[in-house]
Design goal:
Blueprint (H helix, E strand, L loop, with lengths): L4 H12 L2 H33 L6 H47 L7 H31 L12
Length: 154
């Protein structure tokens, strides 16, 4: 193991390169969490209005039940996206640790296939999360209350 400052600096740079992807993972988790919170709040508000008997019109009541169910589906999509995003972060973090220990010479038996697989799995899970977010956004747009029956604001 070369203990010079240049070698140590180079090892840290190589090991920390995937950390920039972790920033993207964290940003996506934050964005999805916001979408999840809005969806849950909307579902609760609708259910609260229905449970208190504020809605008398049967057409509007049916519409609100459908909207609450759609918010529930959106919440499930957001939860799945967060799951895959967190999984992505775990695998990318493992990649960082593997690269650091490998570059530092602390682990000689570490095979490069571990680094490749953890990084590739991290990217696959990140892309899965992005795909689910896209599906949730499309679903949210399609389920928007464009055709809300009259009296919805009452």
């Amino acid at each position: 193991m070369d203990a010079s400052i240049d070698a140590i600096t180079n090892n840290i740079q190589i090991a920390l390169a995937p950390v920039f992807l972790l920033t993207a993972v964290a940003t996506l988790i934050n964005a999805i969490s916001g979408r999840l919170a809005r969806s849950v709040d909307r579902m609760r508000a609708i259910r609260h209005s229905i449970d208190r008997g504020e809605v008398k019109d049967q057409v509007l009541l049916q519409h609100m039940n459908k909207e609450a169910d759609e918010a529930k589906i959106r919440g499930r999509l957001c939860t799945a996206a967060i799951f895959f995003d967190v999984l992505s972060g775990v695998f990318i973090s493992l990649t960082v640790l593997e690269l650091f220990f490998f570059q530092a010479g602390a682990v000689r038996s570490l095979q490069t296939t571990y680094v490749i697989w953890t990084f590739v799995l991290g990217l696959i899970f990140f892309m899965t999360s992005l795909s689910i977010v896209l599906a949730e956004i499309v679903y949210a747009y399609r389920s928007a209350g464009w055709n809300t029956p009259h009296g919805a604001g009452k």
